[in-house]
DNA sequence: GTATACTCTACTTTGTCAATAGGAATTATA
DNA sequence: TATAATTCCTATTGACAAAGTAGAGTATAC
């Protein structure tokens, strides 16, 4: 698995929207500032997330973005796969792996499958509600320490 | 983690050399044919593997390549990291991850670290001796089934 | 000395990533 | 209705790496 800037922005954007879930709309401008992304690039990412059914939007004055599902219903794995594609370390399109007749090559395929499974076990079991809780817990620690 | 053709070729080359360990030298030509790689590209990979201390070579007529350590002493993880670099899904060079002061960003760093650890647990615990055994076991199955 | 093989460096092609740009469409509100 | 704020859509660019190509140079067995 590889995570590009695009995927990174997407995850941070969804987390920010999760933090504002059931509260207010978030404008692209504010979002871009908080997650430190170029606004025009972020707009494209948000458009993708919209097509993927993760995000909704309201146009015009006082418009903005919001999550289309509850944070508990969105996992990190869903976002990553949607933006980055399959998480396998090697593409199965590569013919020597999809059509695994030669034993020399087949042994590696098993390894990539194990890695892929281990990765999925992690990213598919973290929801954005989990992340919101972590952020809030972190904030409390910060508040106490002051 | 991402595995490019270069890494793929490197792994297959080392496996092929492992299958010939303590037997005979393997020429670049033969190697390229068996693992289905462009010879001139494979030569560069083998040169890298030599610099990394995994492979030795003999020049001239009846020259070729051989492993510089026993297959049991080489892991898949070593080869991958040497050829592809770090296995983390996201680069720690990205300042928001190396300098993790903002909680919004920090929660994802933990996930990438878990993925990275899970990946290492797999690839660092497979030696090329393991792979040789698998190949030989596969060959026996094939022999019986005929 | 010649065929065979590895060594080294440079180059090319192709594709993706990340960002930039500019306008079109939509909507609240003064 | 005009305007400001906002999302939507498409095109383009610059940088970089991945994958392969090329050719000359060096070593060695026979």
Instruction: Bin the helical content of chain A.
Output: 55-70%
Content of β-strand of chain A: 5-15%
CATH topology of chain A: Arc Repressor Mutant, subunit A
Structural class of chain A: mainly alpha
Total discrete domains of chain A: 1
- Low-pLDDT residue intervals, each spanning 5 or more residues of chain A: none
Folded structure, characterized:
2 copies of one chain form a homodimer. Chain A is built from 7 helices and 2 strands; from the N terminus they run αααββαααα. Chain A is mostly helical and 146 residues long. The first copy, chain A, is 60% helix and 5% strand. Chain A has helices at 5-19, 28-35, 39-51, 76-84, 95-98, 103-123, 128-145, and strands at residues 55-58, 64-67. Chain A has one domain: Winged helix-like DNA-binding domain superfamily/Winged helix DNA-binding domain (Arc Repressor Mutant, subunit A), CATH 1.10.10. In chain A, helix 1 runs antiparallel to helix 4 and helix 1 crosses helix 7. The mean pLDDT of chain A is 91. Chain A has a two-stranded antiparallel sheet. Chain A is globular, with a radius of gyration of 19 Å. In chain A, 32% of the residues are buried. Chain A binds a DNA duplex (30 and 30 nucleotides) through helix 3.
């Amino acid at each position: 698995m590889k995570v590009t800037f695009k995927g990174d922005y997407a995850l941070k954007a969804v987390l920010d929207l999760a933090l504002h879930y059931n509260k207010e709309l978030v404008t692209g401008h504010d979002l871009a500032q908080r997650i430190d992304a170029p606004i025009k690039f972020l707009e494209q990412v948000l458009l993708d997330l919209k097509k993927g059914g993760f995000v909704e939007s309201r146009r015009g004055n006082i418009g903005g973005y919001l999550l289309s599902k509850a944070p508990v219903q969105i996992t990190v794995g869903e976002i990553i796969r949607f933006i980055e594609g399959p998480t396998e370390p090697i593409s199965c399109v590569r013919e020597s792996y999809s059509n695994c007749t030669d034993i020399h090559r087949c042994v590696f395929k098993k390894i990539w499958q194990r890695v892929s499974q281990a990765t999925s076990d992690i990213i598919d079991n973290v929801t954005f509600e989990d992340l919101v809780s972590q952020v809030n817990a972190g904030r409390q620690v910060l508040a106490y320490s002051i």
